Amino acid sequence: MSTPSSRTVVVGLPQLRADPNVEVNQRRTEEAIREAAARGAQIVCTQELYPSVYFCQTEDHRYFALAEPIPGPTTERLSGLARELGIVLIASLFEKRAEGLYHNTAAVIDADGTYLGKYRKMHIPDDPQYYEKFYFTPGDLGFRTWQTRFGRVGVLICWDQWYPEAARLTALSGAEILFYPTAIGWLPPEKAEYGERQQAAWETIQRSHAIANGVFVASVNRTGLETSPTGGSAIEFWGGSFVADPNGRVLAKATQLEEILIVSCELGDVDVVRTHWPFLRDRRIDAYDGITKRYLDQ
Which end of the chain is less packed: N or C, by CB atoms within 10 Å? Predict the structure, then answer.
């Protein structure tokens, strides 16, 4: 298959350890963004909730103090950086919408520093050490895409990555690349028995989204062991950030160490793959009413 016209965009995914100090995380992430841009990245996406440790391991009201309005101080800071470097930035933040109303949100900033908008995480987990329902209200902005200087991007966040409906609707709104800021890892007591299959499932489902929708998928995870502030538990974030093409082929994948993944994506492949694998053409939209039901009782 040949690409009719070249539209190459370079994606940068900084996979970092988190520090308990927010300003340290801001500085280290900004340094990583600068390095990614110096290595040719045109669109850079942070890991989920990058300014802090993954505080959802415990239910603690103190952590609501980490939240901020979007747009707000951090998006203003990043807008200046995007403008300076001439890159698109996707930043995963803890949003304070109003007193008592918070979201897990990604801000999208264009290469001239313009704040384009935000996506609020739609699917909110509640698992051991992932107590996100305590902190986050489910998103209410729907599944969105933005036309940036370097391509049309869609953003989904972590737990969203397990839902084909989310990927489909974002792709149908025009996304050429689906970005997934992520914080996922092993609970150390379970790693030996379940670790390999958990990570394989995580990668497989996202590669499947790339294939089913004919889009690029870029997933950026954090790394490192983060202990619960209440003690006695921890999450070992597994890294493994990767980019898959519209055929589901992994173009590049990070290790479990800190790493800045730089990957070239030929956006013309979206058209080529969708022409040869016309899944969107052959959808039976007349027969999908049941997809909006919780379960199809017989």
Answer: C
Map out the domains of the chain with their CATH numbers: 8-280 (3.60.110.10)
Residue 265 is a catalytic residue: no
* Angle (CA) 221 253 91, round 5°: 35
CA distance 174 to 162: 20
CB 254 within 8 Å of CB 242: yes
Question: 264, 257, 225: which is closest to 241 by C-alpha?
Answer: 257
Confirm whether 48 is a catalytic residue: yes
Encode pLDDT of 138-171 as tens digits. Answer: 999 999 999 999 999 999 999 999 999 999 999 9
Pairing of strands 234-238, 145-148: unpaired
Choosing from 48, 132, 226, 259, which is the catalytic residue?
A: 48
For the record, the structure tokens of 88 come out as 């698109």
pLDDT in tens, 96-105: 999 999 999 9
Beta bridge partners of 236: 186, 225
pTM for the complete prediction?
Answer: 0.96
List of residues 6+ apart from 107 with CB closer than 8 A: 70, 71, 74, 75, 78, 89, 90, 91, 93, 115, 117, 118
Please, is 191 exposed, middle or buried when counting C-beta atoms within 10 Å of its C-beta (0-12, 13-18, 19+)? middle
Q: Which of 56, 95, 132, 158 is catalytic?
A: 158
Give the integer Cα–Cα distance in Å for 78 and 91: 8
Residue 121 a catalytic site member: yes
